[in-house]
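Our preliminary data section would be incomplete without showing what the modeling component actually yields. Below, a chain of 316 amino acids is followed by its predicted structure, encoded as tokens that our downstream tools consume directly.
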Amino acid sequence: MTNKEKYRLFCEHEKSIPIFSQAWWLDAVAGDAWDVCLVENGEEILASMPYVTKKRYGFTLLSHPPLTQNLGPWLKGSQAKNSKMLSQQKDWMEALIDQLPKYDYFNQNWHYSQTNWLPFYWRGFEQTTRYTYVIDDLSDLEKVYSEFEHSKRKNIKKSEKIVNVVFDLSAEDFYQNHKMTLAKQGSKISYSFDLFKKIYDSGYRNNKAKTIAAFDCDGNLHAALFVIWDEMSAYDLISTIDPDYRTFGAASVLIKEIIRYTAGFVNKFDFEGSMIEPVERSFRQFGAVQKPYFAVTHKPSKLLNTMLCLKKAIKG
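Predicted structure:
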């Protein structure tokens, strides 16, 4: 049995693997271009790390597929003393690194729950700290809503009188709306309809995805969200807001409603944080907590390093 086959079976019962590392998700976003490193003890999997291989200008890149917030290692939980646990993590991570295929460039954003990247540092990897924003506990929705900033609650209350919330917008309608709203802002959509349809269909088939939209009484679509979830958390994967109706606050209504919906089966809501200042400010206004995560890179190719340095020098 190949690592990939073992991992597929493993994902069916291991609930702590984030959705972006689940086999069905990788099938949807990467097709046959993904594989996985495994550390095993007999038939027990102790650690895993999926990766996606891309070819660019003759270079081999291990990087993220589109619309995928994080990859990185998964490590089995341990009840051992801290020193023993860190020793285990070092051994497992080194074993994962050793199984990676030869590459020129490695780049993965890790899930924020993985806080130890030191074994990768010892192997020459680098990291940049980035941030997402998470509501950690959805068990008391009244408390969650009370943590929204006053201005946010006020805008939601006003908008609820204007829009109606509808679930299960079709993949075609969601994609075309996102494409249209971006065009109004002079931007192009960054993912194809075929890719989105695969994610949409796989997410709905696995009961891990939902679209939600806000329409006014004239049938105008103000905003829509595409949200996915695993056993632990929901993720605000894609938001689409029509700039003509931005001031009406429908997007905030949708956030409130999708939090209410997903609180029935997960305990966290991840806004898929942004390093863009206005976006970050909006997430904070929902009472979300800042969570640091690692963007881990490795560039062993001297040729690629030279090219990247020249490109930076030319731009600078």
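The mean pLDDT is 92. The longest helix spans residues 82-99. Preliminary results of this kind motivate Aim 1 of the renewal.
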